[in-house]
From TrEMBL:
Gene3D superfamilies for this protein: Bacterial phosphonate metabolism protein PhnH
Sequence intervals crossing the membrane: none
Molecular function terms from GO: lyase activity
InterPro entries for this protein: PhnH-like_sp, Phosphonate_metab_PhnH
GO biological process, one term: organic phosphonate metabolic process
Superkingdom of source: Bacteria
NCBIfam families, A to Z: PhnH_redo
UniProt key word Lyase: yes
Gene that specifies this protein: phnH
Keywords assigned: Lyase
One Pfam family linked to the record: PhnH
Name of this protein: Phosphonate C-P lyase system protein PhnH
Length: 236
């Protein structure tokens, strides 16, 4: 039993260092160890996404799951972490499984709490599963699913960092929010193999080949309006 507990502790420590490295180098591809197999883990929650979620979500914070069928995943996370489930607009952490469709991905980012100028730390972190994350070179070599190259600039980036990902709805929704720093949301992308990228609120995101920041013109139809600022002292 002690050996198992030590192994899980060391796994969590390595995962924590990976996420720290990802935030220190926005847009750079990192890797994280997947959580150990668990027979009761819902199908929507792969081992890599669970590993990321467990680093952030515990009984001291709140979370929301954005998925077509979120209840099983939410119940599992509540049982494992003792965190309370809240609506997206009020949650500290928003979990988006890789199977979530375009509409849900956009809504998750648009509705996440941006914090306030007085309390920007109340801005949410979106933990988003992806089908595939890779380097631009790997994307150019082909493979399924098709990938979009994303460019990240800003603090922590010498010039530009590039990565490739199968979904970009999160980037369009992020731009459509028009957050003013220090308000905004943090986004962590992770695929089933444990490839991971962090996009802090201070970063500028563009799609390769586009001249300006990812805009709202290509947003899916019928997405919700960007979230209102969370009030200081509001229950989170």
């Amino acid at each position: 039993m002690m050996i198992t507990e030590n192994a899980e502790l060391h796994r969590a420590q390595r995962a924590f260092r990976s996420v720290l490295d990802a935030f220190a180098h926005p847009g750079a591809l990192c890797t994280i160890e997947r959580a150990a197999d668990n027979p009761v883990r819902p199908a929507a929650l792969d081992g890599a996404l669970e590993s990321v979620v467990r680093l952030f979500v515990d009984q001291a914070v709140t979370f929301s799951v954005v998925d077509a069928e979120p209840d099983a995943t939410a119940a599992y996370l509540t049982g494992e972490t003792h965190a309370m489930r809240f609506p997206v607009r009020e949650a500290d952490f928003v979990v988006v499984p890789a199977r979530a469709d375009v509409q849900l991905v956009a809504e998750a980012v648009l509705e996440a709490c941006r914090g306030t100028l007085v309390a920007p730390e109340k801005g949410a972190t979106v933990l988003m599963g992806c089908a595939r994350l890779a380097t631009p070179e790997q994307a150019a070599a082909g493979g399924e699913p098709a990938l979009h190259v994303v460019e990240v600039r800003g603090p922590g980036v010498a010039d530009v960092n590039r990565f490739a990902v199968d979904r970009v709805e999160w980037a369009r929704a992020r731009a459509a929010r028009h957050d003013e720093f220090p308000c905004g949301v943090e986004i962590v992308l992770v695929d089933g193999e444990g490839n991971l990228v962090a996009v802090p609120r201070s970063s500028q995101v563009t799609l390769a080949g586009e001249d300006a920041s990812v805009g709202e013109a290509s947003m899916p139809d019928r997405v919700a309006a960007p979230s209102e600022p969370c009030l200081v002292g509001e229950a989170r």
